[in-house]
Design goal:
The chain has a domain of 233 residues: Rossmann fold (3-Layer(aba) Sandwich). Strand 1, helix 1 and strand 2 form a beta-alpha-beta unit. By secondary structure, it is α/β, with parallel strands linked by helices. The longest helix is centred in the middle third of the chain and has 22 residues. Helix 1 runs parallel beside helix 2. It has 11 helices and 14 strands.
């Protein structure tokens, strides 16, 4: 397969690209480096020298439809994995236009470039945020849960899912084979040492707790301790980025012409903020002082994946299920930052 990976210099994008290279695919990375790291592109290229796959990198923006179309044609792309997006919930609340412009319109531009090409398979990076704040009685959350996003990030990704469905319908009506899938990630964590964690921590819990353990921050702020959860703090499903990368590969292999699939990608269990802080303290050997603060706008109480569907339909299950081990990979990278 020849696969275009948008956001290939980003966190999930780089790990997905590496997985595809290990499987022997040709990967064409596409990134504007607004949040992705150039060093990741270099590391992917170096890795490709010893792996069965081939790697090429293109610098550009997915909103540049002409450049994307040129890249698709030049490299004879047959599959697209779309990972380029802004993804910080709190920022989306402050700057909703930024999220709709980059995420929604960016996906529309990318699909427009795909329309006349030979792209037959398309995987969209989506998010648990499309569900909004489901009733705790519905946890874990199946894909059939009604989508009512409560922040612009979730709304932008739900719009992308709808654009993909419309694109598929148009291609079907034209008699042109096309298969699409939306993967709704839960909270991604951990890393391959050669690729690293998210370049911008942006308030993400595990990197923040690690910074406290390393003495780079004085304390971890718990954003809300009055949620209707067992210990009053938010509960989230943490999924290793290596498992996310594997899910992309497995779904891509499973897609057949005409398929339209939606899958949760998570571990299927949740941890509270306090439990993550305790796990980070155990792994690092350093205490994690905490400060109680107000809730963040747009934060649901609990988001835990029901992963029955993806397991039954394609056989994917998370392999990295020890939260401490996941935290340890991120801690190792944060301790060195490639130095």
């Amino acid at each position: 397969m020849t696969i275009l990976v948008t956001g290939a210099a980003g966190y999930v994008g780089s790990h997905t690209a590496l997985r595809m290279l290990r499987l022997g695919h040709t990967v064409v990375g596409f990134d504007n480096y607004s949040t992705g790291l150039r060093d990741r592109s270099i590391r992917l290229a170096r890795s490709a020298d010893t792996l069965p796959g081939d790697f090429h990198m293109v610098e550009g923006d997915i909103a540049d439809t002409d450049l994307v179309a040129q890249t698709l044609a030049e490299h004879r792309i047959d599959s697209v994995i779309h990972l380029a997006a802004h993804c910080i919930v709190s920022e989306s609340v402050r700057e909703p236009d930024k999220y709709h412009r980059n995420n929604t319109l960016g996906a529309a531009s990318l699909l427009a470039a795909c329309a006349p090409s030979g792209v037959a398979r398309f995987i969209l990076s989506s998010t648990t945020s499309v569900y909004g704040d489901p009733d705790l009685g519905m946890t874990p959350i199946p894909e059939s849960t009604p989508c009512h996003p409560i922040n612009p990030y979730g709304a932008s990704k739900l719009a992308c899912e709808r654009l993909l469905a419309e694109h598929a319908q148009t291609r079907h009506a034209a008699g042109r084979p096309f298969a699409g899938a939306a993967l709704r990630y839960f909270n991604v964590a951990g890393c391959e040492p050669e690729l690293g964690e998210q370049s911008n921590d942006a308030g993400r819990l595990i990197p923040t707790a690690i910074n406290v353990a390393l003495g780079r921050q004085p304390a971890l702020t718990i954003c809300g301790s009055d949620f209707p959860t067992p210990d009053g703090t938010c509960v989230r499903d943490y999924i290793d980025v290596r498992d996310i990368a594997a899910a992309h590969a497995d779904v891509l292999d499973a897609l057949k012409p005409g398929n339209q699939r939606t899958y949760n990608v998570g571990m299927g269990r949740g941890w509270s903020v306090r439990e993550v802080a305790q796990a980070t303290a155990r792994v690092s050997g350093h205490p994690i002082p905490t400060i109680e603060g107000p809730r963040r706008e747009g934060d649901p109480a609990a988001l835990v994946a029901d992963v029955t569907k993806i397991a039954q339909e394609i056989g994917w299950v998370a392999k990295h299920t020890d939260l401490g081990e996941i935290i340890a990979t991120a801690l190792e990278w944060a301790s060195t930052k490639w130095r």
